[in-house]
Amino acid sequence: MRKFDFSTILPLLALLTALGLPPAKIYAADLEPKTVKVFNHYVDAAEARIAKELAQPGAFLHIEGLPEPQRSQVLASIRKGEIYMDRLATLDASGSVIEAPDALIHHWIGAVFIPGTNLKQVLDLVQDYNHHQDIYQPEVIRSKLIQRDGDNFKIFYRLRKKKVITVTLNTDHDVQYFPIDSMRCRSRSVATRIAEVENAGQPTEGEKPVGHDDGFLWRLNSYWRFEEKDQGVYLEVESISLTRDIPTGLGWLVKPFVTSIPRESLLMTLGDTREAVEKKR
User: Fold this and answer.
1) 114-167: per-residue pLDDT in tens?
2) Which residues contact 255 (CB under 8 A, 6 or more apart)?
3) CA nearest 105: which of 233, 239, 229, 256?
4) Which domain holds residue 148?
């Protein structure tokens, strides 16, 4: 069963009674074709921007293209051990932010510097998918390499995300790596299937229909850039995800999950990757 903090149970029941709704209906959300279409448009525009950045000489990382003095400040801070995080937004041709109907698009970028290592050591770790359950716990509770063909990987993650409520997801991902030279590499990861798990870990465990669930994660793309220099490796990760919108009257329950989890997950990924690489040095 879905887990609640005790302090949320009584106000939740009172709210449901006032609304005249059974508990199951507070979660139900459907991923509509119109929403998928807009998300795909958003991703296409974001990937076009990424390609343009990568084509710029001398600025492989997104943060290297920031205006001064922000660029120098960010590079100095991550070399001191801080993690850089920022929210991004992709615009349409008219200059307006692309927004998905009945859903939320979450777009974050983060960067860390891992001193005293090299590109090969970092790639060896991030491509060791069978052990990601050890590196990225408690969010990744199961990981498995399904197939590898050169620089192309198919992987499975069971994810557990908790923020007032606990949500378990079975996810499949296609990951492609694009080596550029001996010092630089980038990758693109796309979740090809995300299924919410009911009664996780219990005899009655099962998956909800994909796209007809609670809507806490419908899509997830991530874009990684690795660059070896300054006696270490810069790691930059850009994440684009899609969740349900916040239902009227239930923002106190749903909003903390869908608005904070994307940022916190990326922050955890960057920090855990750096820590794992440093332990292997």
Assistant:
1) 999 999 999 999 999 999 999 999 999 999 999 999 999 999 999 999 877 789
2) 246
3) 239
4) 28-280
**Taking the mean position of all CA atoms in its chain, how far away is CA 15?**
31
What is the distance between the terminal CA atoms of the chain, rounded to a whole angstrom?
A: 42
Token pair for 139: 């969010």
Q: How far apart are CA 217 and CA 155, in angstroms?
A: 18
* pTM of the complete model: 0.88
Tokens of 151: 């620089």
Tokens of 34: 């119109």
Picking from 126, 137, 215, the residue whose alpha carbon sits closest to that of residue 173 is 126
Kindly state the tokens that stand for 120.
């090969």
174 burial via Cβ count (<10 Å: 0-12, 13-18, 19+): middle
d(CA 232, CA 75): 13
Q: How many residues are recorded in the chain? A: 281
| Count: domains in the chain | 1
Residues 6+ apart with CB under 8 A from 181: none
Contact of 228 with 113, CB cutoff 8 Å: no
CATH assignment of the domain containing 245: 3.30.530.20
